[in-house]
Amino acid sequence: MKAKALLRTRFIARSAATGLALLIAAGSAAADTTVKWLHLELDPNYVAIWRRIADKYQAEHPGVKIEMQFLENEAFKAKLPTLLQSSDAPDFFYSWGGGVLKQQLATGTLMDLTEAMNAKDGAWVKSYNPAAVKGLSYDGKIGAVPFKMGTVSFFYNKALFAKAGVDAAGIKSWDDYLVAVKKIKGAGIVPIAGGGGEKWPIHFYWSYLVMRNGGQKVFDTAKTGEGEGFNDPAIIKAGDQLAELGKLEPFQPGYLGATWPQTLGVFGDGKAAMILAFENTAANQRTNAGDGKGLDPENIGRFAFPAVTGGAGAATDTLGGLNGWAVTKKAPAETLDFLAYLTNAENEREMAKAGMLIPVAVGAEDGVTNPLLHQSAEQLAHSTWHQNFFDQDLGPSVGRVVNDVSVAIVSGQMSPADGAQQIQEAFEQDQL
């Protein structure tokens, strides 16, 4: 960074509810600094909240400009590797954590945040849920500033469930779920909004079934290259169950080409009874609905992914995100200061009240007032094993195969055993 004066770093107490954040102040007048922020948020209401926070920060820090840049989900994933190697690299960007973040950190693309976040008796790092910091750390290095946690679960259209005579409270097992799918379809209603075009939305089904059948031990054993790996019988059984769902043809016509925004629109337009999706689905279905309004919040229900009879996994095991903001190697020092500000308890509470996230800032929990988001927060609070998305945790190479295989199995294009073998081969290749 070019500056007319030397920057000095200091931690001070900030008077927002939890009070602690990192501030980096200029010793004297510094040249204007632009902090480039790359995100993929679709909801304009949420982006507006970020913009207000950024504008307030700018007002309090003359000479610093926060520039927000947007890329759609798939474009973000496709362009980010090239962007990170270019002169136009963002200073910080959204990260799903997992193997992708670990790889970016290992290759030196990102700033190791460990020293900065632990300075001054760890005031900054202690302002977050310890599990969030741990989940974004690799080989003793903090790879991203924690932002939010989330879990994937089923959201359903109460009116369509009532029309089909299905009681969501009665769906406790995978067998119960299949019965409900058949009953909904029998009522002339599309049971599930499915996003096969981008593939990763379908991997939620395969991942949860692996978790429910094998439990944490089977998955951890597979990803460390031990035992039968991804050819474990519990993992193949998960594929069998996914194939069984696929045979019911539960998704909307054309689901294999549907993008995620389109899939949310199908649910928001009332053209499918349910969707397996993120904790902020109630807001995102509204944004992507044809009329921009979507389903009335009172018409949306939620239930956890059901248990598998005889499976080693618990119904209280959760799959979902652990998201943070990764900082690039050459980012100006002001980037860290802004991130401490963006994710402090006051601002995380504001985002939580808007239904935007489940906060990771200590003291911001009372901001979760949206009923559906509160249910997700409660589920996470009692989670017996929280697993990051498989395609993120296993890294880009293996994760891509997981997504491909999930779609191939559910659409009947691949056998569960062949799918498991392909994932195992991709994993072995990735270890070379």
From TrEMBL:
SUPFAM superfamilies for this protein: Periplasmic binding protein-like II
Keywords assigned by UniProt, alphabetized: Periplasm, Plasmid, Signal
A GO cellular component entry from the record: periplasmic space
Localization in the cell: Periplasm
Signal peptide location: 1-31
InterPro entries: Bact_solute-bd_prot1, SBP
Protein name, entry field: Sugar ABC transporter
Similarity comment: Belongs to the bacterial solute-binding protein 1 family.
